[in-house]
Amino acid sequence: xxxxxxxxENFESLVRMIQFGIISLSGLMLENIFLxxxxxxxxxxxxxxxxxxxxxxxxxxxxxxxxxxxRERPGITFKRFLKSNLxxxxxxxxxxxxxxxGVSLGLWYLLANTLGIIVGFVxxxxxxxxxxxxxxx
Length: 137
What we know:
Layout: H1 2-40, H2 46-69, H3 78-104, H4 109-132
Helix pairs in contact: 1-2, 1-4, 2-3, 3-4
């Protein structure tokens, strides 16, 4: 019976990571759209465009993860939303560093941003799983 429970527990974790990844991919696309529009049409500096795009993306991902990935922990709470923003600030710092390095190496800013988001994904998933979506909400 323990083996079956272990397989089931790992399967649920894999499904959760896939859901988190799909939502993160949609967040990546949304952030890059905002980043592009804010730089190319609003004339913002790269860092400011990144931060605004990231926050829009974080809010959207929070609500989708609340509805789908972590649906067994019901309720949207302001406390949980703040936790998500705090946790994801670490991912933003990681992504911002990769973005700056990539751009300084001559990468197109949207490609560098995408790479930064991918690098920050593992950090975000681990921290969101154990902190933001902890059972105490």
